[in-house]
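Fold these two proteins, one after the other.
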Amino acid sequence: MKNKTPPTAVERVMREDDFIVSTTDTKGRITYGNRIFIEFSGYAEKELLGAQHNMIRHPDMPRGVFKFLWDTIQGQNECFAYVKNLSKDGSFYWVFANVTPLFDPQGRIEGFFSVRRKPKAESIAIISDIYRAMLDMEQRVGPREAMDASLGLLQKMLAEKGLTYHEFILSI
């Protein structure tokens, strides 16, 4: 199931003590969502379970960000990211996400665990500008080259700052 509702300009803001928690299998299908996830997504639990997590992907999110995230967690590392999500009703909400792989007893990845919290407004202002530039790049090069081109742009920006991705994300 994919969210077909057009995005609106209505923002939902997480409360300071909110934590959105979800798990997925290795294919990105939702296996668990806490009550805060259900609340902000706008979907019923039965609509979420088994659905692709990208059902809440907002079109303002560059594909390059998700490529980086997936490459990182599939490489058995945790990843932090600022993410703009799309609710079922078209509203949106920003999160600061920490995504980690879950391992079976043999050390193989069996799924992913994500905890999201309210981001700082100043962080969203900074990351929004970067995401806009990444989206512009994706539109210029077309869908086939979009992910690599926007990720390359992000990596170039970070190199100019002399920071790794995680150093930058955790510093804003």
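Now the second one:
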Amino acid sequence: MRKGKAAKNADEYLANVPEPARSTLKHVRAVIRSVVPKETTEVISYGMPMFKYNGMLVGYAAFKNHCSLFPTGSGVIEKFAKELKGYATSRGTIQFPSDKPLPDALVKKIVKARVAENKEWD
């Protein structure tokens, strides 16, 4: 959804995302926020909102025909391969419908796994 100038923060990014993707990503953002450590910050990286804690944790973005979650760590997508069956995935991306977020429990597991990975670098 890169139209016009780049967003300065997650709220600005979301404000420029059309529905239904905006509501979907707001929900995903809230789920992520519910499990990250309080020291976690939100930044814009590569034009999309990212959560940062000891390095990048996860990002999310809207595209023309889907939304994506970007767990930046090594092996997270493979670790949850069974639960991600039915979703398009690549090495660093999980795609899901613009009108239907990933299950909350799955997002929480992925984010917690990423936090654990980044804590190892502490």
